[in-house]
Amino acid sequence: MRITEIFEQQQRTFSFEFFPPKDYQTAIKFGINAGQLMKLSPSFVSVTYGAGGCTQNNTFDIVNLFHNDLGFTCMAHYTCVNATWEKIAYDMRTLQDMGIENVMLLRGDKPKGEKLKDPNPDGFNYGSDLISFVKDQYDFCVGAGAYPEKHQEAGSLDQDIENLKKKVDAGTDFLITQMFFDNRYYYDFLNKVEQNGIKCRIIPGIIPITNYKQIEKFSEMSGARIPDKLKQRMEPLKDKPSEIHKIGLELAVEQVGELLENDAPGVHFYTLNKCTAAIELYESLSQDFKDVKMLYEQSLSPHIATP
Ligand code: FAD
Description:
- By secondary structure, the protein is α/β, with parallel strands linked by helices.
- The protein has helices at about 5-10, 25-40, 55-70, 85-100, 125-135, 155-170, 185-195, 210-220, 230-235, 240-260, 275-290, 290-300, and strands at about 15-20, 45, 75-80, 100-105, 140-145, 175, 200-205, 205, 265-270.
- The longest helix is centred in the last third of the chain and has 21 residues, at about 240-260.
């Protein structure tokens, strides 16, 4: 199913992002964790492509598994950094032949150890170039990335939003945000986006903090700022994983609850291929926010395929 069709049925979506496992060991853990998360019947799932510069090939295998073996609506992430149009065309045909209807199209970051062809000889320099090409040639429902605290390379948020408009004008059907830890960034971003005449569903991307050191690393990589109040609370406990998990979860429940109360069109969870935090978060929301629970129940549909 196209994700835009799900939007027509579900006022709010509840989705999970996975990354493809690298080897046998991680594949086993992936299977167990993903299996637990699928019991929550997410609106859709997505699988990253070469994030961190590896496992690009495994993306299509996992997407195939979710879509064809398990019956979930699945979105394949895809990046154009260093790609030729022949490769992109080949990969899009492969996804199409698998029956995949949803792709998340991004420029991507330079893979580790590879030299960046800058500018790309085939003209794929930005997410918008890839989106235009794919929308022109294929019939995919297309998601793209949005950056409430601006993309790290952008001179300003205003400039970044001007560039975001190019992606939306190129045919993006919906946007998912980079992680953020302070909802004010998301609300301010939505206002600016609206002022710029961009009309597109913008789903907040959320990551529960269950490992402070790891989140510090992500924050540095993505430019998502950790608010001082949160830092002061978490830093003294960073070597106490169970304390961090407990506080991280409390904060995530607070963050997601507030987003939903303020009419966010759902939540996209960066699961990091782990299930505990996402399950606990879902369960806590169900108890603490009865209306949210009701909305979730209305929005969750039974996607699990019979084996
Ligand atoms: P772009 O829209 O290409 O923008 C990148 C920069 O260029 C911005 O600073 C923008 O302002 C600027 N820009 C855009 N268009 C123009 C223009 N026409 N002229 C001048 N400047 C311009 N990475 C992966 O490798 N794999 C993944 O699976 C993956 N999944 C992601 C999922 C989400 C929800 C998000 C938010 C990000 C994801 N990323 C992933 C990271 C993403 O690839 C990087 O952030 C990348 O640097 C930007 O890609 P983009 O297409 O979003 O940005």
